[in-house]
Request: fold
Amino acid sequence: MTGPEIRLSTGEVRRHARMVDEAGAMVEEAKAGAKHVNLHDEVYGVLCSPLFVPLINPLQDWAVTEIRNGAEATKHLAELLRALADNTDITDQAAANRLRAGK
Reply:
């Protein structure tokens, strides 16, 4: 019994992985910006800093952590997409070799 026919363009999966890499680079830029703002309390001004910094710092710390997690997850997704494409190519080649050999 045969299963459903599945067609997967590994070239398209790799192209998508490159797009995910680009998105990851953008998230890295956001992370750098968030860290910069987090390090400079004076960006809120002399009058507002004593008032806002104690309120905002925990939120900024959380935001930086979440942006970092997003950047790492995006990089990992791109790696998984490339691994999917590689494994699909290897599996397809092995199946083709078995068919050619008559096994």
